Each structure stands twice: as C-alpha cells, then as structure tokens.
Amino acid sequence: MSDQPGRWSQANIYPDMWVDPDEDPRDNAGASPDGEPATLRDYLTNYRLTLLMKCEGLDPEQLARRSVPPSTMSLLGLLRHLAEVERDWRGWILPGDPPPRLYGARDADFDGAVAEQAVVDAAHADLAREQAATDAVLAEHPDLSERVGRDAIAVRELLVHRIEEYARHCGHADLLRECLDGRVGQ
C-alpha cells in the first residue's frame, strides 16, 4: 500500500490531458494571434490560466501543503510568489523606488502560505490585482523594443521573462498537484 494517490484526469476523450479540449478555458481553438505582441500576451494569458486550473477544486489545506519535501513550495505559495513577482516586475518599469514587498522578507510568499481560507482568498485577489497593475503599466509601452526602467530593459524581454516564470512554475504546479491528489497535467 502506498501513500501516493493514484493518477487521474477529468478528461474523457483524451485521458492524458487535464481537461478535454472542448472544456478547456484557455483559448486554443482557431488561428493563433497575429503579431508578436499578441502572441506573447496569448502565451502569458494561457500560462496564468493554467496555474489557476492547477489550484481549482482544492481546499486551503491542500493548497498550502508542501507536497514535495524538502521543498517549501506549495500551490498557495506559488500564487503568492507570482503576485510578488508581478509587483517586482512593475518596479523594473516604473521610475523611483520599487514598491514594497507584499509578504515581507525573502521566502515569506512561501513561508506564509498557510491553510486558512482568508489567506487563499487574499492570494487570489493579490495575484489578480498585481497582474492587472503590471499589464496596465506595460500597455503604456506597445513598442516591444522600447527600453524602460532604471536598467533599460526591453519590453520584449520583460514579457518573455514573465512567460518563462509562469511556465516554470506551471511545471512545479503539475508535480505539486499530482502529489496532492494524483491529477495529472497536460
């Protein structure tokens, strides 16, 4: 007997997928977007949705569980971490001092991810707010070659870095979720 949950998926047509394509909230049907800016935004949007999908249907204890010891990473910690990172990226663009950290000292985003509904609700609200704020600042810079902020980072580099961050953490979320309840990613 094992403590590991059995692998499963909600998909019926393609049992190796998270959900069947006709139930997938990510816009994967039809032609891909035209142009580099639209393509980058589409990838970012889909990775953001993927992260939220990995967290669906779990209670606060499951979301906060560090299911891959000795790592302190949890799904709730990932939500909090990405809210913190969105805020940090905005600091790269805006003049002046960076905004204060949301959760405090280094690793507080993961360490403070405790199994309380209020913490879960706050994490979702923080992430949505910080994503919207960073998106709004970047919308003011439609030229992907424009260099912004103290370090003169190209807008393109910032968008690609955001995609990379979400993609990497979606891979972590796949493993965390599978360890929690056996649900496999796609």
UniProtKB/TrEMBL annotation:
Region ranges (Disordered): 1-39
Name of this chain's protein: DinB family protein
Composition bias, Polar residues: 1-12
Entry-linked InterPro entries: DinB/YfiT-like, MST-like
Coiled coil region boundaries: none
Organism phylogeny: Bacteria, Bacillati, Actinomycetota, Actinomycetes, Streptosporangiales
